[in-house]
Structures are given as C-alpha cells and as structure tokens.
Recover the amino acids of this structure.
C-alpha cells in the first residue's frame, strides 16, 4: 500500500514516521514546512492539481491528513478566518476529491472541538450533533462535511488534547512551567482526555490494514481536567517544587469558549478494528520518559 502523509513535520506526522519504519507499506511524507534532517516532499494541500499529480505519480492508495490550522485562539482573528477555513475545510475536500478519482482512502484527523456548545456530561458519540463554540471547531466540522459530500472512501478520526515529544503542546509547555515557576494556576472546569500522538498513529495504521468507512473517536482511555493533567506531568517528571493550583476558565480570558466536557466515546473504533487503547497516565509516563532521555 502506498500511503501519503500530509503535515508530516507536526506531532502526529512525526509519530507516523516512527511507526512507518516497521511497516511493509510504502510511506511518502509531505509538508509545506521543511525541517533539517527529515526527508519531506513539498506539497501544498490547498492546491488540488498538485495533490492530483502527487497521487497519480506515486500510485497513492491512502492519504493520512495530519495537516490543519490548530491555533484555537488564533483562529478567532477575523483576518485569519479565510486561511483557517482553507486549511481545515477546503484542503481536506481537495484530498477527498483526489482520492475519489483513484478509488483510494482518506484518513482525516478531526477534533473534539466539533462539540462543546450543548451542556452534557456523558462521552460524545460519533453521531452526536456537532455544536462547535469557535472558528477552529466550526471549520474542522465543515471539513468533515465536505469530505463526506465528495463520496470518497473516508475514515474521519476525531481526537483530543494531543501531545507528544514533538513540536509545541500542552505537555511540553507544562514540563517547562512546572520546572521554572514557583506557582501555577491551571483550569479544572474543562474535562477531556489527553491523547498521546504515538497511540493515535498506531490506531491509524491498524485501521488502514482493514479500512471501514465512517467517523470514529480516538483518545486515550480515562478522563481528567487540565489541572489533573498538569499534576501528573509534574509528578512523572519528578518536579515537586511548583505549587500547582486549580482555577476556573474565566480566570484566563480567551477569545473562544472551550468545551467544558469533551470526553470521546471510543466504543466504535475499539469494536470495529479490535484496538486496545492505553490509559492516559500510562502513555503520559512513556512520553515524559522519552523527553527525559532526549
């Protein structure tokens, strides 16, 4: 199988690189950003003709789209809206059109931020109505809808609170802050589940072995607040000098209201692909140990 990975120099893309080394499939890694030491082919996914050429020339069977605009606050800037929609909705539609033409698969990474407006306290299922609270979630939901409308073979994987050893993410930020600040306030009134990007990449590879079209949810198992997440990050890193205190979301004014509860129900992906999902603290421990070694 020839698999094209977009956004290959981001968190998930880098984990896909690691997993691909032990794969029988042929992976091609693309991005608009070039990183020294990483073999990356330039591909602008807002350019449909460029995608078509890449797919045909390399006989691509599946695309894993790891590229997106992910700056949630930045997406609220009116001057950025057109770009956010282009990256999160039009670009996935382009990928879907190109794969439809060769009868291939598109794996689209989406987000728990497609939910959030309606108050609820049970894990979100795949068929639950999307109620995004901001531009980021709205454009990601639009991207899902545009993919479905093309009629291509797709697997949409919604995930949440992604972190890894790569790039900028909450885990790495909190490792730094808990090591350098005497006190830290972290919100406790937003509940969700951290997702280790390596685990998500493993699930994607498993799903591609026997693909079944549909929308799926994937995060690690369990539930916590950002405060709980931070406490465990500091504990596993052995950083005990920082006084970590819980606080309310309104103590950190933001241009967008984040979901107060966005735990994802993962029953469907587990039953469809026979995937065993690690508990969030187990994966966090692995990531922090890797970061310590780096």
């Amino acid at each position: 199988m020839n698999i094209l990975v977009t956004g290959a120099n981001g968190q998930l893309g880098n984990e896909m690189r690691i997993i691909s080394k032990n794969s029988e499939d042929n992976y091609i890694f693309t991005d608009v950003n070039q990183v020294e030491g990483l073999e990356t082919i330039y591909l602008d996914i807002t350019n449909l003709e460029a995608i078509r050429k890449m797919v045909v020339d390399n006989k691509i069977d599946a695309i894993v789209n790891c590229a997106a605009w992910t700056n949630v606050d930045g997406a609220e800037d009116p001057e950025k809206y057109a770009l956010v929609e282009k990256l999160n909705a039009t670009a996935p539609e382009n990928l879907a059109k190109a794969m439809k033409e060769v009868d291939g698969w598109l794996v689209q990474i989406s987000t728990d931020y497609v939910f959030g407006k309606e108050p609820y306290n049970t894990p979100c299922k795949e068929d639950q109505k999307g109620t995004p609270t901001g531009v980021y979630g709205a454009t990601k939901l639009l991207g899902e809808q545009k993919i479905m409308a093309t009629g291509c073979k797709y697997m949409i994987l919604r995930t949440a609170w992604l972190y890894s050893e790569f790039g900028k993410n909450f885990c790495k930020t909190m490792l730094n802050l808990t090591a350098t600040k005497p006190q830290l306030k972290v919100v406790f009134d937003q509940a969700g589940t951290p997702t280790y990007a390596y685990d998500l990449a493993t699930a994607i590879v498993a799903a591609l072995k026997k693909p079944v079209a549909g929308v799926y949810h994937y995060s690690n198992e369990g539930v916590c607040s950002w405060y709980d997440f931070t406490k465990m990050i500091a504990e596993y890193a052995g950083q005990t000098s920082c006084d970590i205190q819980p606080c309310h979301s309104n103590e950190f004014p933001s241009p967008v209201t984040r979901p107060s509860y966005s735990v994802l129900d993962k029953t469907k992906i587990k039953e469809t692909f026979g995937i065993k999902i690690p508990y969030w603290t187990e994966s966090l421990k692995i990531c922090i140990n890797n970061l310590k070694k780096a």
Notes: The chain is about 40% helix and 20% strand.
